[in-house]
Design goal:
alpha+beta; nine-stranded antiparallel beta sheet; four-stranded antiparallel beta sheet; 9 helices; 19 strands; 27% helix; ARG and Rhodanese-Phosphatase-superfamily-associated domain-containing protein; ARPP-1
Length: 341
């Protein structure tokens, strides 16, 4: 398996990921992250420092502003905000914002079934909807119905052993210290523009950013919330141990044991021998991931253009095995947020 084979198998058809390369897999508990390097596309406003939640004028209505002096903002798919003394919301879709532009999203979903109030401009931080909610949220884009995700959030809470309520903060806020361990135990690499995520060794998502600065600002929302929630739930509870949570540091090769023990070959010893064994283990792990991706059921990929700005195209991707949105420029991928269905 070459480095591109896995990505080409996962995203067939007209979606070009030319130049993007898979790096050494890292693992924290049930979450595996494979860093992606590739071409940078300068001139885009990063999401945390460039975008501002400027208003929540009503339930299901969220206004974002591109406060950057230069650079088009690609609003991250399924971005949401936890706010002080205001109703928490998440978006069902991505969009383009030019410098200084404000955009009112009237099809946002409220992720807090009660309380809240008006935005005061105080503490706020953003997340990305957990994997378990993303396909449903994408299907609900364009529907002006603010409680449209409450039942799905309640089901998610129940699966996590929490009260069955449409309050996503039961997971994101109350479990935040546990979820943020994924951020610290996986290493963001210099020049990294994306990542392939697996939960319990199954494909979970593919995230590509325009440049390393953009991806660095998405690192915590993606690892902790978009994929960390599912990984946290997939973690087995050890005897007499704390419930769900990542309990291992980042791993750069396969698990120990039958699949991943480091073995020296005849004639190898010392540091050089260990280094060679480690490289083989890393290559084996990457090959294993490629085989798992190749085994994911595929089918026709449908692209539906949703928005455009100059030579940029924002499209919704629908396939039997994945869904999400992607931004292309002359058929080259600039941004992608694709997740398992």
């Amino acid at each position: 398996m070459t480095q591109m084979t896995a990505l080409d198998t996962l995203v067939p058809g007209p979606l070009s990921l030319a130049g993007h390369r898979l790096g050494t897999p890292q693992q924290a508990g049930a979450l595996t992250m494979v860093p992606i390097s590739g071409p940078a596309h300068p001139g885009f406003a990063p999401p945390r420092t460039g975008l501002h939640l400027s208003g929540v004028p009503g339930y299901g209505r969220v206004e974002l502003t591109n406060t950057a002096a230069t650079g088009v903002a690609i609003v991250p798919l399924h971005i949401g905000y936890i706010q002080d003394r205001a109703q928490n919301h998440a978006l069902c879709r991505s969009a383009f914002l030019t410098p200084g532009q404000s955009l009112l999203f009237e099809d946002a979903c409220c992720v807090q079934a009660g309380q809240g109030g008006h935005l005061t401009g105080r503490d706020q931080w953003f997340f990305v909807l957990p994997l378990e909610l993303r396909a449903r949220a994408l299907d609900l884009r364009g529907l002006h119905d603010y409680p449209k995700l409450w039942d799905d959030i309640a089901d998610l809470n129940a699966r996590h052993g929490l009260p069955r309520r449409g309050h996503l903060e039961q997971i994101l806020s109350r479990r935040r210290p546990m979820l943020t361990q994924f951020q610290s135990r996986l290493e963001l690499l210099p020049g990294q523009v994306g990542a392939l995520f697996l939960v319990a060794d199954r494909f979970a998502g593919l995230e590509i950013a325009p440049d390393p600065a953009y991806f660095a600002e998405m690192w915590a929302p993606l690892t902790c919330f978009a994929y960390g929630v599912a990984a946290w739930h997939a973690e087995p509870t050890p005897p007499n141990g704390p419930p769900n949570g990542p309990r291992t540091g980042p791993r750069t090769g396969p698990r120990t044991g039958a699949r991943g023990a480091l073995r020296l070959r005849a004639g190898e010893d010392g540091t050089a021998g260990l280094r060679a064994a480690l490289e083989r283990a890393r290559a084996a792990r990457l090959a294993d991931i490629g085989a798992r991706l190749a085994a994911v059921p595929t089918g026709p990929v449908e692209l539906r253009e949703e928005d455009r700005h100059l030579d940029l195209r924002l499209s919704t991707v629908t396939a039997p095995h994945l869904a999400g949105q992607i931004v292309t420029r002359h058929d080259r991928t600039v941004y992608a947020s694709l997740f398992a269905r």
